[in-house]
Prior knowledge:
The complex is a heterodimer. By secondary structure, chain A is mostly beta strands. Chain A is 2% helix and 54% strand. By secondary structure, chain B is an alpha+beta fold. In chain B, strands 1, 5, 6, 9, 10, 11, 12, 13 and 14 form a 9-stranded mixed sheet that branches. Chain B has a 3-stranded antiparallel sheet with strand order 2-4-3, with no helix packed on it. In chain B, helix 6 packs antiparallel against helix 7.
Amino acid sequence: xxxxxxxxxxxxxxxxxxxxxxxxxxxxxxxxxxxxxxxxxxxxxxxxxxxxxxxxxxxxxxxxxxxxxxxxxxxxxxxxxxxxxxxxxxxxxxxxxxxxxxxxxxxxxxxxxxxxxxxxxxxxxxxxxxxxxxxxxxxxxxxxxxxxxxxxxxxxxxxxxxxxxxxxxxxxxxxxxxxxxxxxxxxx
Amino acid sequence: xxxxxxxxxxxxxxxxxxxxxxxxxxxxxxxxxxxxxxxxxxxxxxxxxxxxxxxxxxxxxxxxxxxxxxxxxxxxxxxxxxxxxxxxxxxxxxxxxxxxxxxxxxxxxxxxxxxxxxxxxxxxxxxxxxxxxxxxxxxxxxxxxxxxxxxxxxxxxxxxxxxxxxxxxxxxxxxxxxxxxxxxxxxxxxxxxxxxxxxxxxxxxxxxxxxxxxxxxxxxxxxxxxxxxxxxxxxxxxxxxxxxxxxxxxxxxxxxxxxxxxxxxxxxxxxxxxxxxxxxxxxxxxxxxxxxxxxxxxxxxxxxxxxxxxxxxxxxx
Lengths: 188, 317
């Protein structure tokens, strides 16, 4: 896919030197009677680093070859997570580093969106909320349930989060995967 | 200010501009927006209009009233200005709209220095006439419009902000490099404390300006910057019909080499020049940008009714 500068908009995914970038901001600039440019702020989708680039009107841009797959989590193997495409059953190995902390919110058969760049996994988008059980947490102080204080807890997947003092071992919690924070207790 | 207050403020600025010029012996011309030739400048995209007196008539919307006002000068208009809408395709951003408001004025017997003086006078006059402080704020910069403007040549600006002379803009690649440095490294630095005139352009970068001969000839062209915003473009006007005809031919050839749509040569303008145009200074000023700065707005769309959204999102293919 080839784009023109007039196609540039927030969210457009392009490829520069083999790396995928998403447009986070752009602005048309043109000195009077001069050559026109689009000033862009691009985010590298692999590293998160920001690139500023001024693109001349008429220059062509390579669209990043992106594919989104509905997949589910199978298991972990060494430093990879293994996912399976729900339709084709094709398996994808995703490096631990791509998921980062979110790897600790994966549970068997969790449905995810797998984004591939040139056929290689780029990002794994988890559901906004997951439910996980508390396996370890100090009992809260008696009579302190309304203080709004928090304490650390370890969840069934090994994730460590801050929870309210009233949360007990064995309870099921709803977690927001975008922020990695506790939302509420869920009845089993 | 709410949207209506901004538009009423804009109306007051337009009134004050007319007051400024009519009080100085200029009269307000009202030349056609729909013309046979919109000029041939390489980096402007005129909008084409079909139909009119006859179904197949091809006309263009003006990118500036320059050619028509110069025809009036030839007819003996004397000092003249026009305040109205102009059209340039493909231009959309915080400081660009495909339809915008241009103030253009011509002073016979003057040159680009006279235009710089007129512009400074106008910038001092407007806050006073509108009962505003003379300091404008834009993107973190505070600029006092009442202070005499700085003057910086293009050669000095490239040396100061890029550490080297400007690239030779006479080839397409050199021109792109020249403008890239201008937009990335120079323009954002201009006029951040006091209004600043950039002046004396490479001869190839001013199709309608007089060239001052010398060891390194320059075009007598100037642009005013306030807080990095380009406000106006003035020339010592080229009056030589032979030279002007040669430049039009060059531009048409450059357009052809770049694969741009062909445009009719500005025959009526060239014929008028041959009748003898008086020496003159001329200036074109972006009124929406000026209103934006005076109103403290973030973009010109805020001071225009029903503007195109500057971050237009095209429909998905």
